[in-house]
Amino acid sequence: MPITEDIQAYNAAQSAGDKRICDALATTIDRHLPGAECKIWHRHPVWFLDGNPIVGYSKLKDCIRLLFWSGQSFDEPGLAPEGSFKAAEARFAAEDQIAAKDLQRWLEKSTEIQWDYKNIMKRKGRLERLK
Fold first, then answer.
1. Contact residues for 94 (Cβ-Cβ < 8 A; gap 6+)
2. Cα 127 to Cα 15, 69, 82, 86, 103, distances in angstroms
3. Interval 41-97: pLDDT, tens
4. What ranges make up the beta strands (E) of the chain?
5. What's the CATH number for 5-112?
6. CA distance 81 to 70
7. Where are the domains of the chain?
């Protein structure tokens, strides 16, 4: 699925360095998750598989944060736990910090390992493993 105009506008609104990071992430994510829906969700670019959030990124004060909703289950170096559920993150202050092989591996795992965030409200905050 092509990168949406909303995501392109989000990337364009960043500083030059952050825009390069965002563009690199969006292009790579889109290439490795061809069936995913991408959109701005809670003001940030996010990719979904069957309505379940998989990966997204956002601007923090001094970097771009890449977030995998099920990333703690990937058991991958380079991803740090984030929040109280199963999410994990990587942070980039420059485009050359993005390791293409790592990002590709993480994206592959994101399709294989998923927790059901889509139905977390129905389950009153309890996550169930999908894949």
1. 17, 21
2. 36, 11, 15, 9, 25
3. 999 999 999 999 999 999 999 999 999 999 999 999 999 999 889 999 999 999 999
4. 37-41, 44-49, 52-59, 64-68, 80-81, 88-92
5. 3.90.1150.200
6. 10
7. 5-112
